[in-house]
Write a structure and sequence with these properties.
Blueprint lengths: L16 E4 L10 E3 L6 E3 L3 H6 L3 E4 L4 H17 L13 H8 L13 H10 L4 H10 L8 H8 L9 H7 L9 H12 L3 H12 L3 H17 L4 H15 L5 H20 L1 H10 L5 H13 L3 E3 L11 E5 L4 E8 L10 H14 L5 H7 L7 H9 L10 H23 L14 H7 L8 H12 L12 H7 L15 E15 L9 E8 L4 E6 L1 H7 L8 E9 L6 E9 L3 H5 L2 E7 L5 H13 L1 E4 L1 E7 L2 E6 L10 H11 L4 E4 L2
Parallel strand pairs: 5-7, 10-12, 13-15
Antiparallel strand pairs: 1-4, 2-3, 6-7, 8-9, 8-11, 9-10, 11-12, 13-17, 15-16
Helix pairs in contact: 2-12, 2-13, 3-12, 5-12, 7-8, 8-9, 9-10, 10-11, 12-13, 13-14, 16-18, 17-18, 24-25
Length: 661
C-alpha cells in the first residue's frame, strides 16, 4: 500500500490547455494517447509542464463565436452588408441601454441568468468596463461586493489609504476586482516584483501560509517606505488576502465581455438574424429552443413552424427576395430541430426539393426523396410537427395515407430506375388535387392530440398553448415565473402557476419520513419549466391534485443548490381555489381625462356585485405625475374571471391588473 502512496490515481485531460515548445515535445517530456483519440497528451501535469520551462496556454473554444459568425453571414446574405464584428463601436449607448440596462440579455454570452439580469438592471452599465466588472464580480465570493460597486457607480463615495491605490482601483471605484489590480498594488505599494506578486495570489488561493507570511513582511516594509504606517500597511494586506483568493483575471473577463457586447450589438441591430443563429446552435437542447422562441415572441419576432417546402437544415430568416430585407421579422423553424429527423434525412429532403421543385403532396414527396434516409419514422415526425400542413389535407389524413404513399413512392422510384413509366406518366400521381383525393376520409385529430404530438417532436406547442386560456390568471396570481427563478435568492417564497407535464413518485430513504411517498413534478408555464418537489407531508396533503396536464399554482420556497433552481412546495392550489386563497389586489390604471362620474358609478356597482376580500387600487396618470389611491374597503371584491372581464368592458382592455398578495 505504501508503494501506491503519492502515485497518480488516474489520468485526465485539461479542457483547453495546449503546450507549446520550440522543438519536438518529446525532447522535454513524456507523451501518451488516450483511448482511441489521436491527440497527444503530456504525462506531466500542468505545474510540472511550467517548471520544465514550457509554455502552457488555454485556448477556449466558444460556441458563441460560431453563433456570431452565423449571424454575420446571415446579415451579409440578406442585407448585402459585410459586418466586421471586431470593429463595432464599443461605446454605443443604444446597446447598453436597450439590452444591458434593461436586463434583456437572453442569448447574450455570460449575461443570461436571472440573477445577472437583476444586477444589470440595478447597475445600468454604460461602458465596457462595467460589463468586465460585472463578469468578474458575478461569482461566488466577490458577489457580496456587487451592491458596493453599484452604489459607487451611481455616485456613492469611496476612499483608499494611498494615492497609488486610488490610481490602481479608480476603474472599479476602489474595489479590488481583478488579479491584475492586486498584483499592481503589491508591486507599486509594497515593492514586490510582479512575478512574485502573481505567486502571492496563487499562494493565497492555496493557503500557503509560509509564503504569505514572507510576502507580507516585504509588503509592509515597502508600504512604510511609501509613507504609510505599519498598521495601515497590515490593513491593506488583509484586504489583499481577502480579495486575492477570488480575484478574477481581467484579461479573461475583458475578452468574455467583448464577446458579450458583440452578441448584444447583434441583438440590438440585427435581432432576427441573431436569434436565427442562436436557435440554430441550440437545436440539440429542446429547453433552450423553447426559451429562445419565447424570447423571440417577446421581441416581436414570429417563429414559423417547420415547412417541408420552406425550411432548411437550420433556422433561417424569411426575407423579401425582391427587396432583400427581412419580411416582418420572421424566422422559419429548421427541419433538423424536429426530434427524430436527423441531418442526413434533411439533406436528402433539400436535395430532392432542389431537383423536383416544391413538393405538391405527400405522394409527390415520397416519390422524390430517398426513402432509405427519409424513413417512416422521419416522415411521421414531420407530419406531427405540421411540416406538411401547406400541402392540403389534415395531419390525421397524412398519417393514415403514409404507408400507401411510401409504397407508391418506392414503386415509382424502382420503375424510374428501370427506365419504365407508370400509367400516370413521369409526374407520378398527377396534380395536387387528385393527390388530396387519395387521402383517406378520416376525421382530424382533436386539438389536444395534435398538441401532444407537437410537444413530442418540437418540444413546444405550435397550434396553440393549453395554458393560453389561463394566461390571465397565471399572470395575476403568480409572484414569479420559471424564467425568473434563477435570479431568486435561496429560500425565497414564490407562487408560480402552470401545468404539470411530468410526475415522478418515489419513497424517501432517510430520516423520520423514511419509506413515505414523495413526488417530483415538472411544472410548465408560458416562459419555460422547472421542477417542483413535494416532500412526504406536502404530498400527503396535496397528492390528490397531482396529475399530468393539471393546471395548478405552487406556493413554496426556491431551492438554488442544484444547477437549475427548483421549488420546494408547501402548498398546491387549484384553479377553483386561487381567487380565495391568493386574494389578489385589483389595480385600475386610468388617465385623468378618462375619469367620469358615470364610469365611477358603474365601477362601484360592479364591485358591490362581486364583494370579497381583495382591495381595489386606482392609479391615475395626470400630466407628468401619478396619483395612487386605495378605494374604500366596502369596494373590496372577489376578482374572478367574470369580474375581470366585466371591469375591462367598463374601463377598457389592458387597464386592469391583478396582483397576488
Amino acid at each position: 500500500a505504501r508503494k501506491l502512496e503519492g502515485l497518480c490515481r488516474h489520468a485526465s485531460v485539461h479542457a483547453c490547455g495546449v503546450v507549446i515548445a520550440d522543438a519536438p515535445l518529446t525532447n522535454f517530456l513524456p507523451l501518451y494517447k488516450q483511448g482511441d483519440s489521436d491527440d497527444l497528451i503530456t504525462q506531466f501535469e500542468g505545474p510540472m509542464v511550467e517548471k520544465v520551462g514550457l509554455l502552457k496556454m488555454d485556448f477556449l473554444g466558444l460556441r458563441t463565436l460560431s453563433i456570431i459568425q452565423r449571424a454575420v453571414d446571415l446579415i451579409e446574405q440578406i442585407h448585402g452588408k459585410k459586418i466586421d464584428i471586431e470593429k463595432i463601436d464599443i461605446t454605443d449607448q443604444k446597446v447598453y441601454q436597450e439590452v444591458f440596462a434593461k436586463g434583456r440579455t437572453k442569448g447574450v454570452f455570460q449575461f443570461e441568468s436571472g440573477g445577472m439580469q437583476d444586477m444589470l438592471i440595478k447597475l445600468k452599465p454604460d461602458r465596457l468596463e462595467d460589463l468586465i466588472a460585472a463578469n468578474a464580480l458575478y461569482r461566488p465570493g466577490p458577489m457580496a461586493l456587487i451592491p458596493d460597486y453599484i452604489d459607487r457607480k451611481h455616485g456613492g463615495k469611496w476612499t483608499v489609504p494611498h494615492p497609488i491605490m486610488r490610481e490602481v482601483l479608480e476603474e472599479t471605484f476602489g474595489i479590488m476586482v481583478y488579479q491584475e489590480q492586486v498584483m499592481r498594488i503589491c508591486n507599486r505599494l509594497g515593492d514586490i516584483p510582479l512575478r512574485e506578486a502573481y505567486g502571492l495570489i496563487k499562494a493565497i488561493g492555496k493557503k500557503m501560509l509560509d509564503k504569505i507570511a514572507s510576502a507580507k513582511k516585504v509588503f509592509v516594509e515597502g508600504c512604510v517606505k511609501k509613507g504609510l504606517t505599519e498598521a495601515v500597511a497590515e490593513e491593506i494586506f488583509e484586504l489583499i488576502e481577502r480579495f486575492a483568493g477570488y480575484g478574477f483575471n481581467k484579461s479573461h473577463a475583458t475578452r468574455y465581455s467583448f464577446v458579450a457586447y458583440q452578441t448584444a450589438w447583434l441583438k440590438t441591430y440585427y435581432p432576427v438574424e441573431f436569434m436565427a443563429a442562436l436557435l440554430t446552435y441550440e437545436m440539440g437542447d429542446t429547453d433552450k429552443i423553447v426559451e429562445y422562441i419565447g424570447e423571440c415572441r417577446s421581441m416581436g419576432i414570429e417563429v414559423l413552424p417547420p415547412d417541408i417546402n420552406e425550411s432548411f437544415v437550420d433556422f433561417t430568416v424569411v426575407y423579401n427576395k425582391e427587396h432583400g430585407a427581412a419580411a416582418g421579422s420572421v424566422i422559419r423553424f429548421g427541419l433538423a430541430a424536429v426530434k427524430g429527423v436527423g441531418a442526413k434525412a434533411v439533406e436528402q429532403i433539400i436535395t430532392a426539393r432542389q431537383k423536383a421543385g416544391r413538393f405538391k403532396s405527400l405522394f409527390h414527396f415520397c416519390e422524390n426523396v430517398d426513402l432509405r434516409a427519409v424513413n417512416k419514422q422521419v416522415i411521421e415526425a414531420l407530419i406531427k410537427a405540421g411540416a406538411f400542413d401547406n400541402l392540403g389535407g389534415s395531419r390525421a389524413q397524412m398519417m393514415a395515407a403514409l404507408e400507401k404513399a411510401m409504397q407508391a413512392g418506392a414503386s415509382m422510384q424502382v420503375d424510374t430506375q428501370r427506365g419504365q413509366m407508370n400509367f400516370f406518366g413521369a409526374g407520378g400521381f398527377g396534380d395536387d388535387k387528385s393527390d388530396v383525393q387519395t387521402l383517406p376520409d378520416v376525421p382530424p385529430w382533436p386539438e389536444t392530440q395534435m398538441l401532444v404530438y407537437e410537444k413530442e417532436v418540437l418540444g413546444f406547442y405550435v397550434t396553440s398553448n393549453p395554458l393560453s386560456k389561463y394566461a390571465e390568471q397565471i399572470d395575476a396570481y403568480s409572484t414569479c415565473n420559471t424564467a425568473r427563478l434563477s435570479g431568486m435568492k435561496e429560500g425565497a417564497e414564490v407562487v408560480i402557476g402552470g401545468m404539470i407535464s411530468k410526475v415522478r413518485t418515489m419513497l424517501t430513504r432517510n430520516g423520520k419520513t423514511a419509506g413515505q411517498k414523495m413526488a417530483v413534478l415538472e411544472l410548465e408555464d408560458l416562459q419555460g419549466k422547472c421542477e417542483v418537489v413535494l416532500f412526504p407531508k406536502a404530498y400527503e396533503n396535496y397528492g390528490a391534485m397531482v396529475g399530468v396536464d393539471k393546471v395548478v399554482f405552487v406556493r413554496g420556497k426556491v431551492d438554488t443548490r442544484r444547477e437549475n433552481p427548483n421549488i420546494l412546495a408547501d402548498e398546491l392550489i387549484g384553479l377553483d381555489e386561487v381567487v380565495d386563497k391568493l386574494a389578489a389586489q385589483v389595480w385600475i390604471n386610468l388617465f385623468s381625462h378618462e375619469i367620469s362620474e358615470e364610469k365611477i358609478n358603474r365601477i362601484k356597482s360592479l364591485c358591490s356585485s362581486y364583494r370579497g376580500k381583495s382591495p381595489l387600487y386606482v392609479r391615475v396618470q395626470t400630466g407628468g405625475f401619478q396619483i395612487v389611491a386605495m378605494a374604500d374597503r366596502s369596494l373590496s371584491v372577489r376578482p374572478d374571471a367574470d369580474f375581470y372581464h366585466k371591469l375591462e368592458s367598463v374601463i377598457g382592455a389592458g387597464k386592469v391588473r391583478l396582483r397576488s398578495n
